[in-house]
Amino acid sequence: MEIDCIFCKIASGAMGVPPVYEDEEVFAFGDIAPVAPVHILIVPKRHIQSAHELTETDAALLGKMFSAARKIAGETGIDETGYRLATNIGPDGGQSVPHLHLHLIGGRKLKWEH
Ligand code: 5GP
Ligand code: ZN
Fold first, then answer.
1. Residue 3 neighbours by CB under 8 Å, 6+ apart
2. What is the Å distance from ligand 2's center to 109 Cα?
3. Which of 27, 104, 89, 29 has the alpha carbon at shortest distance from 61?
4. pTM attached to this predicted model
5. Fewer CB within 10 A of the end CB, N or C, for the chain?
6. Active-site annotation holder among 39, 52, 99, 101
7. Is residue 101 annotated as part of the catalytic site, yes or no?
8. What is the CA(38)–ligand 2 centre distance, in A?
9. CA separation for the pair 11, 19 (Å, rounded)
10. pLDDT per residue over 12-65, tens digit each?
11. Which residues surround ligand 2, an ion (CB under 5 A)?
């Protein structure tokens, strides 16, 4: 756990943030500032700064993160209407928390903004 990392703390359970989904390697929770009716963050429990740090050795972890997204989409009822999975990388990519996270966003029609 990175000592000053908010998502490490949340994923460890220390902050009391309720999990939307959890397994040995993955923790998912509601975004504090949701941009849509469904806005969940899916993070690895292990600290990884961003998707840029991923390698082939993380294939199983990525499978778990995407599988978690699929389950959450089903449970929140947006699997039929569709949703977005996004991960921002670095300052120009709009990443504000330097711990890898997938945004799962849905429940309304999304625009594509650049
Ligand atoms: P990024 O900008 O790095 O792609 O996404 C970070 C996301 O984390 C933002 O959508 C922001 O609202 C959310 N966030 C930041 N701090 C916290 C927090 O302490 N708790 C929760 N639940 N979400 C947070
Ligand atoms: Zn972290």
1. none
2. 31
3. 27
4. 0.97
5. C
6. 101
7. yes
8. 23
9. 8
10. 999 999 999 999 999 999 999 999 999 999 999 999 999 999 999 999 999 999
11. 2, 5, 7-8, 47, 99
